[in-house]
């Protein structure tokens, strides 16, 4: 059975006790898990929040990104190695949280462009590093699920076709695919076709409205999406990822300049929307 999660980036990218009442309420709504951004340097806080999630019965997934100085597709081997070390640090912090899945555009640096289309050598560089990261993550019991982003945030993997190609080169049982409906809404011709294409490798799924607001309030084709998930018999997480201006530093870093929806509207109405779609399509 699919589990339903919520990404707490709707409130904060920081790891602190301020998240605990939020986690309590997510548990009360009925969520199976919470997703956290791994970036804060306060290493002790990850264990603290991870222990709290275990106490209240919330499972955990994580998400992160790489900086230009950690780009796995850089021509500079030292930069690529720094990226691999950063992923290992992210895996360690994810392990501290008790995470099952680490997702995000960890195949290359976020919002970093070469002013050219992706090159074969860049896929090969990324694949080499991700294979090594897969070995490290397997030891921690964490599945890596790289994410395709829209063209304004990434150029290596915008579509499931590109992501599937990369994962074919990675060729590691612990490195699978994730799908985000917000990015797919911009880059794929048909979401259902894209889901079926990546289906054999799909291991994580973000439920995100076209404007990053409350799922079900925009124009993402949810019936097509859930019908395709049922067709491929997807059994992984269905995690809401919506963004707000609540954490200004994080919002500024990803170009979120207005409030799409209030966090609890996303959490409560988004949960109801997922349950409705799951029941309708037999997930």
UniProtKB/TrEMBL annotation:
GO molecular function: isomerase activity
Keyword Aminoacyl-tRNA synthetase listed: no
Top-level taxon in the UniProt lineage: Bacteria
Entry keywords, A to Z: Isomerase
Domain Xylose isomerase-like TIM barrel: 23-251
InterPro entries the record matches: Sugar_Epim/Isomerase, Xyl_isomerase-like_sf, Xyl_isomerase-like_TIM-brl
The protein's Enzyme Commission number: 5.3.1.-
Transmembrane segments: none
The UniProt record lists the keyword Mitochondrion: no
Name used for this protein in its record: D-tagatose 3-epimerase
Organism: Cecembia lonarensis (strain CCUG 58316 / KCTC 22772 / LW9)
Phylogenetic placement of the source organism: Bacteria, Pseudomonadati, Bacteroidota, Cytophagia, Cytophagales
